[in-house]
């Protein structure tokens, strides 16, 4: 998708501070961090939202959560905890319509987020 910013990051035409990449997943620093560690973990395949995930995406989804676990360990979040957030749809707060998960940590997180 030519107009998708995350597809541009996957392709390398839009710069990002990548911290992880494999054949299914890319992870990079969020440009507007809400916590000391704020990474975005995305599939390389364009999937607009969690509502479009199908059975054919099972391997990709597994790799996303494996990457999140790896990154939580790498960034020192595993011991004290972290948050994983996925916003779905306009009313759910989704602003980029390419499936992505926010990995947040490095401080005490509150609920509701704010």
Spell out the CATH superfamily: HIT-like
- Per CATH, what is the topology? HIT family, subunit A
- Please write the string of helix (H) and strand (E) elements: HEEEHEE
Q: Quick check: average pLDDT?
A: 95
Determine the fraction of residues in helical runs and give it as a percent range.
10-25%
Please tell me the total number of domains: 1
Q: What is the makeup of the main sheet?
A: 5 strands, antiparallel
| Uncertain stretches | none
N/C terminus separation: 32 Å
Output the CATH class name.
Alpha Beta
Which geometry do the CA atoms define? Answer: globular
Task: Describe the fold and architecture.
- With 114 residues, the chain is of the alpha+beta class.
- It has a single domain, classed as 2-Layer Sandwich (HIT family, subunit A), CATH 3.30.428.
- 21% of the residues lie in helices and 22% in strands.
- It has helices at residues 5-11, 58-74, and strands at 18-21, 25-29, 37-43, 82-85, 101-105.
- Strands 1-2-3-5-4 form a 5-stranded antiparallel sheet, with helices on one face.
- It is globular, with a radius of gyration of 14 Å.
Set out the fold topology.
Blueprint: H1 5-11, E1 18-21, E2 25-29, E3 37-43, H2 58-74, E4 82-85, E5 101-105
Antiparallel strand pairs: 1-2, 2-3, 3-5, 4-5
How would you describe this structure in keywords?
2 helices, alpha+beta, 5 strands, HIT family, subunit A, 114 residues, five-stranded antiparallel sheet
In brief:
The protein has 2 helices and 5 strands; from the N terminus they run H-E-E-E-H-E-E. It has 114 residues and is α+β, with helices and mostly antiparallel strands. The protein has one domain (5-105): HIT family, subunit A.
